[in-house]
From TrEMBL:
The gene is GANC. This is Neutral alpha-glucosidase C isoform X2. Keywords: Glycosidase, Hydrolase. It comes from Vicugna pacos (Alpaca). Belongs to the glycosyl hydrolase 31 family. Residues 30-142 form the Glycoside hydrolase family 31 N-terminal domain.
Amino acid sequence: MSINSLGQLYFEHLQNPLKQRATKENEEDTSVDTTQENQDELGLWEEKFENFVDVKVNGPASIGLDFSLHGFEHLYGIPQHAESHQLKNTGDGDAYRLYNLDVYGYKIQDKMGIYGSVPYLLAHKLGRTLGIFWLNASETLVEISTEPAVKYTLTQMGPVAAKQKVESRTDVRWMSESGIIDVFLLTGPTPSDVFRQYSYLTGTQAMPPLFSLGYHQCRWNYEDEQDVKAVDAGFDEHDIPYDVMWLDIEHTEGKRYFTWDKKRFPNPKRMQELLRSKKRKLVVISDPHIKVDPNYSVYAKAKEQGFFVRNHDGGDFEGVCWPGLSSYLDFTNPKVREWYSSLFAFSVYQGSTDILHVWNDMNEPSVFRGPELTMQKNAIHHGNWEHRELHNIYGFYQQMATAEGLIQRSKGKERPFVLTRSFFAGSQKYGAVWTGDNTAEWSYLKISVPMLLTLSITGISFCGADVGGFIGNPEAELLVRWYQAGAYQPFFRSHATKNTRRREPWLFGEEHTRLIREAIRERYALLPYWYSLFYFAHVASQPIMRPLWIEFPGELETFGVEDEYMLGSALLVHPVTEPKATVVDVFLPGSNEVWYDSKTFSHWKGACTVKIPVSLDTIPVFQRGGSVVPIKTTIGKSTGCMTDSPYGLRVALSTKGSAVGEVYLDDGHSFQYLHQKQFLHRKFLFSSGVLINSCADERGRYPSKCVVEQIFFLGLKKQPSSVTAHSSDGKAQPVAFTYCAKTSTLSLEKLSLNIGADWKVHIQ
């Protein structure tokens, strides 16, 4: 990598306004510097945008720098854009823009900024991965120019023309409106090294409470307590598991957050007790805009203490949002964050209980009549910083304060769940992120995969897209396919805007209900695998949803794949994203790999593309040979109802006949895994006909009643004569088994092997 090789280093200094300077200098010198006058002509001190005038008190203050990456053609990162996973050349069009904006029904295949920004990109080539983290929260543009490798180019050397090999090169130019040059170069050399290096700077994914990995049911809006009760009952009636009911802005009294509409939700605690009885949770919305109303205690207290962002004349900034005229809390001020956190205390937030969690929306911040629907850049924050300096980090600080509030209300014992729409580098420390106001069209289902892959590799593992599309009414086929995709993505929530037709899973006829039920149940069966992946993201900064190039960094053909991905290192998922599909082309990477269809158990050698026939009930998922995937064998109404339900193991053999896997478990909700080391981390190893369950981390201690009751082997070439289970005290027991020669599968049933104990299973 070389820096400034194109000479694009640029650093504009803050300047005194011309009038001040003229006064100072007049006594000594009558010739005043005319730089500002020249810059004025270019509109650099004062910019007009529609009806808005942006006055830059200290003049233009932009910075920029270029980086040349030698031998690299594949770049990824800098979310959030509704664009391909691999970054494109920007020479023939717009630069990638990082500027958090509320964009309803955003365009796809577009480099405009949407809800969040992570100014961090990765470059990958055979043998090396590296990262560039440009730490700047002002509006930022990134230009990318790739010169592909040329095998030979003719160079004239005197009378002789010589052939010279030219390697590829990509130039990246960062430009920010303000701030300083603060850039971190991550040198890898492997993808996982880069992930770890980035996590040292910004933190790892927060360990989520287990319920948040279940299915979430949301719309704008569930009308009242009766509606919530009916929808909750509908899931039980149709035997569909779910974990979380969501309430959008209409649950409040006139869009005043931390309140309840007394007509619609007269008894919020009773409603929460109903959900609690089924071990379910409630999420409510809390936005950063506060209704201007002296009788609203949140507004009155914030105003009294000077906790709002100010306008450049010194008064409180006021803009229009859902409640009408609103002021915006200044979350960049630690005192404001501390106060906001205190609002979540049970004694303060009337009607809230410990099953209530929070959703931060509109926190770009969204200002309905503002420039580009956001706050003017010359609004003033704590410490006299202009909004332009820190725009992209505003939402990050709201999520931080919310998560802290939920932790504090439990006296530091319980893990919070907070979803945010706006985000920045490091937002992973506080919860989950989603892709915002998407549309119920096939193209948005398709683009969700690369969008989530890009978030995942830039540290934000807990991410998802609104199932079904937020805007519009999905046809039944699209809705089913979206549930099937969402079930294999980290954050799994259905959501719809106002005035769309109701779309609870049972409203599209019996057959579609069955297909959606199956997709959601597959999610719940895989929860032990999901939860383990989140633990590895939390402690080792490994993404959960992985583009193929991360698992196969030495295989060029994986570098541009974005219609399929790895879930951890064991499962390959290829969502169906086309209408009326009857076949999909699935690329199975790795010349030394073997892949098993998780439904039919057919297997293929890697490094090939296979045509997989699909009907509406097919979710193409493949288990990698050499892996062990832990599952739950019985599904409950919610994750909380499955705490003690038995485990199964899916053991897929490699070409060498071995397999390895892990499982992590703890109480699913507290910080005791951290403070008291109350957890189990177990390792499964199958080799030479013996499956061993052993401890993977001796520090962890957690009593579990759970047993492994079923073990399923894929790729076992010959029928065994006997199977025995050996406990740690040496006792051996014969095990009943079923072998299928046609599919080369072996099924062991009715086992009772404790998940937390050492044991072996011998296959002879």
